[in-house]
User: Fold this.
Amino acid sequence: MADANAYDLIVIGAGPGGYAAAIRAAQLGMRVACVEKEALGGTCLNVGCIPSKALLESSELFEQAKRSFERHGIRLGEVTLDLAGMMARKDRIVQTMNRGIGGLFRKNRVAHVRGTARLAGAGAVEVQGSDGAEVLHAAHVLIATGSAPIPLPGLSFDGTYVVGSTEALSFPETPERLAVIGAGAIGLELGSVWNRLGSRVLVVELLDRILPGMDLEMASELKGLLERQGLTFQMETRAGGAEVRDRKVHLTLVSGAGTREEVCDRVLVAVGRRPHTEGLGVKEAGIALDERGRIAVDAHYRTSLPGVWAIGDVIAGPMLAHKAEEEGVAAVERMAGRAGHVDYGVIPNVVYTHPELASVGVTEEEAQERGMRVRVGRFPFRANGRAHCLDATEGLVKMISDEKTDRLLGMHILGARASEMIAEGVTAMAFSASAEDLARTVHAHPTLAETIKEAALAVEGRGIHI
Ligand code: NAI
Assistant:
């Protein structure tokens, strides 16, 4: 009789990287177990991408109901916030998706093992569950344990006043004054949510710009728009410490101008995430880490320990759900002797502010730094008919192509539905398209996507509508 604890593959972590890998491996005929200590879906589904997008949508509708409906000729009377109802909707969405992953596991015969996993020698994983420990065996182990928020010295998380993104997705009431440390994706998205729901939001950022890594022109444009929405920014400033007195946080801010105190109700620390390997027995197993504490892997996602593989936020690269998912699938395809592959040059990156900022490929600064000779085309949403109908005239599309070959090198979209529109740039780049290819592609009229065609035309200086 087959050993019930023997598998071909044990996946540790059921986030977007781990659960997708488990399903793909099962499709390829492997006997798979996926160990997870919390709910299926990982950070992304439970306390990250999905609940934040639910709140971003609800808070944006609240904002529109208060400020924009009248422009459409719709009168609503007094608009009030039911925060508990908004949170309940978010929770329902998460539960539905949790159940969906459970269903996918059953359909694909992936064994869902509840508990905390620890590497226990070659091909062995010990799982500490609610009723004791058991040891599972497999030829392959895939580490997909994700990441956790980085705490700041002097501002340790207390779960109530100084918090990370998890708690900031579930504040029981709207904080009157919210300080956000870090103008990255988390800070700007959750800062936007609470600003729309009535908080006064101060964003504190170490650098002189927001969203490092994104195209500077687009990020600067977005910062201006967020300021118009009411967010305040304190740039080139570091949060030096926080003290809670009388249910208020006294935050110390340090900048070139000196030190000052800011009093607020809550502080969200969103200064990045670090790979999550605690308690996994990685060091004891002798698995090599890179200089930044991430698990070192080769081009096939193999760690230094034979039979152990790693993908997603625990290894190098952008900490994005879709990057983890692609890596998970590629890794198990390699295990199965297939040619799994991730095209790292075309991984989209989206920040779900209003408007959204989406990006793929090189930024203009990166092109300059790398000595690439490029042409840049721009097109503003205010010159697009559909954008006017949608009340979405803010932002622009920026396209970067090779000066000589016209091959598309980067696309950046600041505007409504940029998260959806960027897929056109990703596909075009994945197929090595030129800006001219996009310029000659028929785009339905009237659509926001026409801004992409126009930016492509602008690369050659022959835009029709500008
Ligand atoms: P981040 O790395 O994106 O941004 C952190 C920001 O904090 C940077 O601007 C940095 O300069 C600043 N910072 C660092 N130390 C600081 C200090 N002491 N004082 C003030 N500012 C400081 O990190 P974030 O926003 O926490 O996100 C973590 C990860 O999650 C990122 O890799 C991000 O890409 C990912 N994520 C992606 C989302 C999306 O794709 N929409 C949404 C949320 C997170």
